[in-house]
Automatic annotation (TrEMBL):
All copies of domain NAD-dependent epimerase/dehydratase, residue ranges: 7-223
InterPro entries: Epimerase_deHydtase (IPR001509), NAD(P)-bd_dom_sf (IPR036291), NAD(P)-dependent_oxidoreduct (IPR051783)
Alphabetized Pfam families for the sequence: Epimerase
Superkingdom of this protein's organism: Bacteria
Origin organism lineage: Bacteria, Pseudomonadati, Pseudomonadota, Alphaproteobacteria, Acetobacterales
Protein name: NAD-dependent epimerase/dehydratase family protein
Length: 330
């Protein structure tokens, strides 16, 4: 183990940033996190060096990245808002800091880059013809990283589906399918019941990203991998996994109120942005991890029910009685 390895994580309070930071710390990396309120953010996270700053401020990012071998760019505009005004400037700050330090950029990608012409199985070389503004911005961000690689700044992109996990943050799972902080009374599913969907369990995804980053010297200056995760052939498979874990086969599965979202969208920016991505729930969209498994040998993979149990526990969605029974069983 090399105790001198240092990483800067941008977006550490989000789902991916938090998960990657945990794996990096467990692997012996010294992790720095940039946050506008480090005193609040460091509560319960003494394993991280907290630095005050803003990812929109290039000087802040540059100072936080000093001595770092890796910059994890897991920061996104909050609530889907103002991607055009925030996403690219933040990435450019990361690129500039990585260039100054000779650091690798680790970038969590998603499937916004793709349109229906690439469905149902997405490979790294699939055509990127997005239908949406956020998809176009994602394509532009990856082009920035490609150009940076030509100038000597290395980057590694790992694309994945929708996130779930004990610390899922602002995700479809924690804000859509279930209601965090309360025992489940129902599950809301936003997609077609028979359309396949890709889900990424955050601890597995984070382990994959760190394992790839630790072997970056074997990769091209700009490299992409697809993480298959839990690619479920039917959308309702996710709801049924929730039912199994909470031992409620009769738990109601409700449709997402898309008509109400359309009515409220003119007044709520987040709903308007969510509606733009609805097409990803209407068709089967899965990721091909052939390249990933050829390089790593296997993709880290927690069984779905185990991943679901940990996720619901972390989000405070299991009945107290369930936890007591679990303790008694152990």
């Amino acid at each position: 183990m090399n105790d001198d390895r240092r990483a800067l994580v941008l977006g550490v309070t989000g789902g991916v940033g938090d998960a990657v930071a945990r794996v990096l710390c467990a692997c012996g990396w010294r992790v720095t996190a940039l946050h506008r309120d480090p005193a609040r953010a460091r509560i319960g996270r003494s394993d991280i060096d907290w630095v005050r700053g803003d990812a929109m401020n290039g000087k802040d990012v540059h100072m936080a990245a000093r001595g770092c071998d890796l910059i994890v760019h897991a920061v996104n505009p909050p609530g889907y808002r103002n991607w055009r005004g925030l996403a690219l400037p933040m990435l450019r700050n990361t690129i500039a800091a990585a260039s100054a330090q000779g650091a690798l950029i680790l970038f969590p990608g998603n499937i916004y880059n793709y349109g229906p012409d690439a469905f149902p199985l997405l490979g790294e070389a699939s055509p990127q013809n997005p239908l949406t503004r956020k998809g176009s911005i994602r394509v532009a961000m990856e082009r920035e990283l490609t150009r940076a690689a030509d100038a000597g700044v290395r980057s590694l992109i790992v694309r994945a589906g929708d996130f779930f996990g004990p610390h899922a943050g602002n995700s479809w799972f924690s804000r859509g399918l279930v209601k965090a902080g309360a025992p489940l009374r129902s599950v809301t599913y936003p997609g077609r019941p028979d359309a396949g969907h890709a889900w990424a369990y955050l601890p597995d995804l984070a382990e994959t990203m760190v394992r790839l980053a630790e072997r970056a010297n074997e990769l091209a200056p700009f490299e992409t991998f697809h993480f298959a995760g839990h690619g479920l052939p039917r959308g309702l498979d996710m709801a049924e996994a929730i039912r199994r874990v909470v031992e409620r086969p009769d738990l109601p599965v409700r449709k997402f109120p898309w008509p109400a979202a359309y009515l409220a969208a003119p007044f709520v920016i987040t709903l308007r942005e969510m509606l733009e991505m609805r097409y990803l729930w209407r068709e089967t969209v899965l990721l091909d991890n052939t390249k990933l498994t050829a390089f790593l040998g296997a993709e880290p993979h927690t069984p779905l029910d185990d991943a679901m149990r940990a996720s619901l526990q972390g989000l405070g969605c299991l009945e107290p009685g369930y936890m007591n029974n679990l303790v008694n069983f152990i």
